């Protein structure tokens, strides 16, 4: 009988333990469901809040009242949305740079030593360039520009937005540089053949931007233009070395680039940069040689802006060598070609020293 009593108590205790365990499981499940509901509700609230924020930024951009910080925030949104499709493996594929057969040994070496721009590097540079340009365009006083850059965020309106930007950039206004950067970066990531043309325009307006040279190198590689691809990569590497004060490496890269680039504007720019590298190390004779070569190219190309800049630099290199006569001749010749030469520059180079009065 005692055994039966113990057995009965054990069964009741076991039943209670099962009931408590079952109750615990139910409570845990309910807690998980409640937690999931809270997380979903919070996610929905964040999504609604995000949508409201984007809508507010859209409205501010349309009205031309968006601030600098707000433009940066909205540009990030535009970049993420516009580049979503471009992240697929089929867009802007990797392209190898293979040296052509009919080149010199020095050109072959230059192509082999040129940095290679991977697709991942290109995408990172394109996103950064687009985002920076978009922030500028969102604050543009022209409502057409603001509307067009907003259009590129969605696949359905992106072609119309790009075409509108392209048309406005061709007008040659103040927005052109940022427009070519934004449209060229986006086109390159999407595999659009017109990317190289847009990036060439961006480079022409701001040749000091090493990122544009890297993007242009990738664009040329996809078009099977190995000389141009390697040349652009070497120019970008030269600018990068110069920015860190490594003038020897900058000169070496720029010299390699000169073996490959044929475009007059690019050659003139590279020669001018080589002159800057020599001037930075106070090699005034070498600087004079490079600036003279640059001016020959600028004059033949009728590039007045570059002619004005490098004429001043050449005159400075000549003055540093104590030759005022040649410096004066340089500036007078540049002015005759249409370059902008200031009165102060002419005064410094051309003024004759005062002769001592006779006793």
What order do the helices and strands come in, and which of them pair?
Blueprint: H1 2-63, H2 68-82, H3 105-113, H4 119-137, H5 143-151, H6 158-170, H7 176-190, H8 195-205, H9 210-222, H10 226-243, H11 247-258, H12 264-280, H13 284-301, H14 304-320, H15 324-336, H16 343-350
Helix pairs in contact: 1-2, 1-5, 2-4, 3-10, 4-7, 4-9, 5-6, 6-7, 7-8, 8-9, 9-10, 10-11, 11-12, 12-13, 12-14, 13-14, 14-15, 15-16
Tell me what you see in this structure.
The chain is mainly α and 359 residues long. The chain is 75% helix and 0% strand. The protein has helices spanning 2-63, 68-82, 105-113, 119-137, 143-151, 158-170, 176-190, 195-205, 210-222, 226-243, 247-258, 264-280, 284-301, 304-320, 324-336, 343-350. The longest helix is centred in the N-terminal third of the chain and has 62 residues, at 2-63. It is globular. It starts with a helix and ends in a 9-residue tail after the last helix. Mean pLDDT is 85; it is low at 36-45.
